[in-house]
């Protein structure tokens, strides 16, 4: 299936971070690419949501929800999320 | 509720305490089944910030969990659970300037309706070129509104039909490619601000085509969805 993009996570990310995250920048730990959160390749059809780097496929973050509790893991975004230049 | 095509409906919402939105933003619609199962999907807002109502245009996906309910089951007066407005990346305000190139695949036209209405309502002087791809004229949403918008000297509307076209069709035919993007859009040296919205494969084709034509990737914003119909 075709991935969506980080725009599809705008709502839940806003709930978790209390601000719009789609315009935030990140740096992929796999290839060093920098981009906006909205540009991540997002797979949302599974039991959780997985966001990968558009260039190298490194998993940037994983998000799952159960009974109102969210679990967010960001193995490929270990740098602090940066404001987009 | 307005039927746009057999699969696409525009829904006007009366929302208490709506904080206002920017053109191009979306809302998440959450449905809860009687057994407590919840699911949510994101839909672009079709109305301008200046419009009286907030409206969504929803395409029914046959394997969808939310869109069949919104298109086929929802009735005037029903209540739905919303979160939003969300997303600031794929938003356009007059202050962001242009020239603007909007590239829509199928119901990817929805956020651009909001932007074009905002463009008109705010008296923007930014020149806009809109390229829409649809399977057929019957499946092109907002047909009459597009004709009215195109009457504005600042707004140029191009339509390409990919599957069938009337015999007397004077627009474009076939899928988007660099040649069509070049004909209907701006040259790279005019440094347009470009928004592309549509199904994933459509967005990839359009974005790659523009980058190949020399456009700055930093001035291209994209939004992909799981729809059909290009």
Would you write up a description of this structure?
The complex is a heterodimer of chains A (85) and B (230). With 85 residues, chain A is mainly β. Chain A has one helix at residues 10-17; strands spanning 4-5, 24-27, 34-36, 41-43, 49-52, 59-66, 69-73, 82-83. Chain A has one domain (4-83). In chain A, the strands form two sheets. A five-stranded antiparallel β-sheet of chain A has the order 1-4-5-6-7, with no helix packed on it. The longest helix of chain A has 8 residues, at 10-17. The mean pLDDT of chain A is 88. Chain B folds into two domains: 2-86, Elongation Factor Tu (Ef-tu), domain 3, CATH 2.40.30.10; 94-225, 3-Layer(aba) Sandwich (Rossmann fold), CATH 3.40.50. Helices cover 20% and strands 31% of the residues of chain B. The longest helix of chain B is centred in the C-terminal third of the chain and has 13 residues, at 200-212. Chain B is globular, with a radius of gyration of 17 Å. Chain B starts with a strand and ends in a 5-residue tail after the last strand. The chains are: A mainly beta (85), B alpha/beta (230). Chain A binds chain B through residues 2-8, 10-12, 14-15, 20, 22-23, 36-39, and chain B through 26-28, 40, 42, 83-84, 86-90, 199-201, 221-226.
